[in-house]
Specification:
Blueprint lengths: L1 E4 L4 H20 L8 E5 L9 H5 L6 H19 L8 H10 L11 H9 L7 E4 L2 H9 L8 E8 L14 E5 L7 H5 L2 E10 L2 E4 L2 H5 L8 E8 L3 H10 L4 H5 L2 H14 L6
Helix pairs in contact: 6-9
Length: about 270
C-alpha cells in the first residue's frame, strides 16, 4: 500500500486524476481490461481496514460457521420486516461451497442477504466501498472522531490489467459488485464490497484485509491511502455539498436532512464554530 500525505483538500483532486491516468495507461498497454478503482473513507487515519466481523470475534471463523449465524437471524428479521429471503439452507450452502474453488465467489450465494445484514449493523465480513471517491471523502469528513488529527481515503484496484493469480497458501481479497437486492442506501452510495478469505487446515475462513495489504504485491490488490488533516473538514464538506454529496443525498432520511442542513447551512457558513 502506498500512503500519500496531503496538506489540503485541493490536493486530492490531483491525486485522483493521477490514478485515472494510471488506469488509462494500463488499458492502453494491455488488451485485457484493468479493474476500476473503488474507494473507502475513514474518519481516523490510524484505523486499519477492518470489517465489523474482525472486531466482533477475537478469532477467525469459517464461512460455514458465519453462515449459520446469518441463518439464525433470518426468521426474526423476516417476522419483523415481512420480507422473505430465498437463500440456501445450511446444507445447500455447504454443498455449493464444496463444489466451488475458493476464488470463484462472483456467484456468491446469499450475497443479497449478507449485504442486507451489513447495512443493518449485523457483524459482517463485508468491507463496504464506493465507486465514488467523493462519497468516500464525505464519509471520511462527515464526523470528527475524538483524538483524530487526520482522515484517510483509500483507493483499491483488484488487478491492473492482468488476471488475478491465486494460491492456497495466501489470503485473498474478493470483490462483489453493485448488483444486489439491498437497502436503498446501497445504490445511493454506489456501494461495492470486498471480503477476505484464507485456508487454514483445509477450511476456508474469513480473515483480515490487512493480511493481503501486507503482502505488497505489485501485480494485484493495489492500494493507495490518501491522508488529509482534519482541519480541512469545513472546506471538504462545503465542496462536496455543492456536488450534492451530503448526508441527505446518501441516506434520504429525515435525520440525514437535519444533518445536511446543520453542516451545509450552519457549520460551513459560520466561521466561529
Amino acid at each position: 500500500m502506498e500512503e500519500i500525505s496531503l496538506d489540503s483538500w485541493g490536493q486530492l483532486e490531483g491525486q485522483l486524476q493521477a490514478l485515472e491516468a494510471k488506469r488509462q495507461a494500463q488499458l492502453e498497454k494491455r488488451a485485457s481490461s484493468s479493474s476500476e478503482y473503488i474507494f473507502r473513507g475513514h474518519s481516523d487515519a490510524s484505523w486499519a481496514l477492518e470489517a465489523t466481523l474482525d472486531r466482533f470475534f477475537a478469532k477467525q471463523i469459517s464461512l460455514m460457521q458465519y453462515y449459520r449465524y446469518a441463518l439464525m437471524a433470518r426468521s426474526r428479521i423476516e417476522a419483523f420486516t415481512g420480507t422473505r429471503w430465498s437463500i440456501p439452507s445450511h446444507e445447500e450452502y455447504e454443498s455449493w461451497l464444496e463444489k466451488h474453488e475458493r476464488t470463484n465467489f462472483h456467484d456468491y450465494k446469499a450475497y443479497d442477504y449478507l449485504a442486507y445484514l451489513r447495512h443493518h449493523g449485523f457483524p459482517s465480513p463485508l468491507l463496504d466501498w464506493t465507486k465514488s471517491p467523493y462519497v468516500a471523502a464525505f464519509f471520511a469528513f462527515r464526523q470528527e472522531t475524538r483524538g483524530a488529527t487526520h482522515v484517510a481515503i483509500y483507493a483499491y484496484q483488484e488487478y491492473p490489467g492482468v488476471g488475478k493469480t491465486t494460491s492456497s497458501d495466501r489470503p485473498i481479497i474478493h470483490c462483489l459488485g453493485p448488483y444486489v437486492r439491498s437497502h436503498k442506501r446501497h445504490f445511493l452510495q454506489q456501494s461495492q464490497y470486498t471480503f477476505c478469505t484464507e485456508i487454514e487446515n483445509g477450511v476456508v475462513s474469513y480473515t483480515q484485509h490487512q493480511k493481503v495489504v501486507a503482502l505488497k504485491d505489485q501485480q494485484q490488490d493495489l492500494m493507495w491511502k490518501f491522508v488529509l488533516p482534519i482541519g480541512e473538514r469545513r472546506k471538504a464538506l462545503a465542496h462536496l455539498n455543492r456536488m450534492n454529496i451530503n448526508a441527505f443525498s446518501l441516506f434520504g432520511t429525515e435525520d440525514s436532512l437535519a444533518e445536511t442542513i446543520s453542516t451545509s447551512d450552519i457549520y460551513v457558513q459560520d466561521r466561529d464554530l
